[in-house]
């Protein structure tokens, strides 16, 4: 398996261990965290003292309930807490900085969502 696929599998496993459902394809059902390649996706980095490696980036979209509901923001907060809980167990990964909630359309229905990008050191 490629290093990128290993990193994605580790991110998915960590998020799921934190209690959140994940999705990687175009079909998803809220509440969940959609995981897809970030930009730039994969780059070489110097980790100091001649230690070189690579960093992959993953875009996380936490998708909660319908956007017109106060309960959606509570669900979104819960998803974010679950992601943080799971990622704390994954070495070489930073905790995400989440964007303000926006509408995310699923089959024409707006859902509350927040987006973040994480880096995974390999």
Strand numbers in spatial order across the main sheet: 1-2-3-5-4
Order of helices and strands: HEEEHEE
Major β-sheet profile:
5 strands, mixed
Strand residue percentage: 35-45%
Structural class: alpha+beta
Distance between the termini: 14 Å
The average pLDDT score comes to 90
User: Into how many domains do the coordinates divide?
Assistant: 1
Q: Tell how many strands the DSSP assignment holds.
A: 5
Shape: elongated
The CATH top-level class label: Alpha Beta
Low-confidence stretches: none
**Helix segment count?**
2
Rg (CA only): 15 Å
According to CATH, the fold-level topology is: Threonyl-tRNA Synthetase, Chain A, domain 2
Write the layout of secondary structure elements.
Blueprint: H1 3-17, E1 22-23, E2 32-46, E3 52-66, H2 70-87, E4 102-106, E5 109-121
Parallel strand pairs: 1-2
Antiparallel strand pairs: 2-3, 3-5, 4-5
Helix pairs in contact: 1-2
């Amino acid at each position: 398996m490629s290093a990128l696929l290993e990193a994605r599998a580790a991110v998915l496993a960590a998020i799921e261990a934190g209690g959140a459902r994940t999705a990687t394809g175009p079909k998803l059902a809220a509440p969940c965290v959609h995981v897809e390649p970030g930009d730039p996706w994969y780059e070489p980095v110097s980790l100091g003292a001649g230690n070189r490696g690579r960093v992959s980036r993953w875009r996380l979209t936490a998708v909660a309930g319908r956007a017109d509901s106060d309960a959606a923001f509570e669900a979104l907060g819960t998803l974010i807490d679950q992601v943080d809980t799971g990622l704390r167990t994954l070495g070489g990964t930073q905790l995400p900085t989440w964007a303000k909630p926006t509408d995310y359309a699923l089959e024409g229905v707006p859902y509350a969502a927040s987006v973040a990008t994480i880096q995974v050191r390999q």
